[in-house]
Write a structure and sequence with these properties.
The longest helix is centred in the middle third of the chain and has 19 residues. With about 300 residues, the protein is an alpha+beta fold. Strands 1, 2, 8, 9, 10 and 11 form a six-stranded antiparallel β-sheet that branches. The protein has a six-stranded mixed β-sheet with strand order 7-6-3-4-5-12, with helices on one face. A two-stranded antiparallel ribbon has the order 13-14.
Length: about 300
């Protein structure tokens, strides 16, 4: 079973969990890029984390995870929406030499930051996307996101993530809020039981090693890890690679560079060829196309077909 997200919950409703496996979608992400091995690992782990967190989105829209820095890796971006449509990319510093076993601290500098953006599709007038920004804290992608979730969302969250050139898998455990008080007056006992359940879930999760995560399908992992627990396993969902790039969006990006810079580029190159950083799709803009970008809206000519190579 590939490109699948599986939710489950401990029967006492104190802990929820998810496992995700990216196979075909992960191959789509890597298809147009030759990332160093260490960057592959980070991008695959961040892609799994985005899918795991997006599975609980309560709105029609997207979550965008970004790591910004000015080290060998300048940018990691993963975008996933409520339908579990996913795309990811990385940008490296020019000439960066990255060892296969490079650590997070070696790839990003101390001033790097982690950003999560929640972007609803149907915003009301004046509504802005929510954005949370924190310093990059943690020796792994899992630790970075765990720290973010605790600081910004006040949610106890544990993540186990792994990726290689073939597959990316991840597991999330999240402690559910305990609402005390009961007719039998045993709320203190219930709170203690909830604490013990969270501790036990984390201990079981910590037995999961990277090699096992990469080599074992997610249903087998659930059984191996939690065979002594009573779980409610929900219907699985599928993850898909999807890129939302378009000629219009590329044109808007060129417009933001300004007419002077575009005119200079056209004078030097004759035309502009832009490949999508996510999917590699090429977009070709000749001198006429670029001039059209800066005309008043009522004067623009809309091409009948997408002018790509």
């Amino acid at each position: 079973m590939t490109d699948t997200l599986q939710k489950f919950m401990f029967d006492d409703a104190t802990v929820r969990g998810e496992l995700v496996e990216l196979n075909h979608s992960w191959q789509h992400i890597l298809e147009h890029h030759d990332y160093p091995l260490a960057v592959q690992h980070l991008l695959g782990e961040l892609s799994c984390a985005a899918a795991l967190l997006c599975a609980n989105l309560k709105f029609d829209g997207s979550m965008i995870m970004q790591i910004h820095g000015d080290g060998p890796v300048q940018l990691l971006v993963v975008e996933c929406n409520h339908e579990l449509q996913l795309r990811s990319m990385a940008k490296l510093a020019e000439g960066a030499q990255i060892a296969d076993n490079a650590s997070v601290s070696e790839l990003f500098n101390a001033r790097s930051r982690f950003v999560i953006t929640l972007d609803p599709n149907n915003k009301v007038p004046g509504q802005q996307a929510y954005q949370g920004i924190v310093p990059l804290e943690g020796a792994s992608i899992a630790a970075i996101i765990e720290n973010y979730m605790l600081q910004s969302e006040q949610l106890d969250t544990r993540l186990w993530l792994a990726a290689d050139s073939k597959v990316a898998r991840g597991m999330l455990l999240q402690r559910l809020p305990f609402h005390g008080g009961s007719a039998t007056g045993d709320s203190a006992f219930q709170a203690e039981s909830a604490e013990q359940a969270w501790f036990r879930a984390g201990m079981l999760g910590n037995t999961l090693k990277r090699e096992e995560l990469l080599s074992t399908d997610i249903l087998t992992l659930i059984h191996r890890l939690f065979w002594e627990e009573t779980l409610r396993v929900f219907e699985s969902r599928h993850v898909h690679f999807h890129c939302s790039c378009s000629r219009e969006k590329v044109g808007n990006m060129l417009f933001m560079l300004g007419q002077a810079e575009i005119d200079e580029a056209i004078k030097s190159l004759g035309s502009l060829d832009v490949n999508c950083d996510f999917c590699g799709k090429p977009y070709h803009f000749d001198a006429v196309d670029c001039a059209q970008l800066f005309l008043p809206v009522e004067s623009k000519v809309i091409p009948a077909t997408d002018n790509t190579h």
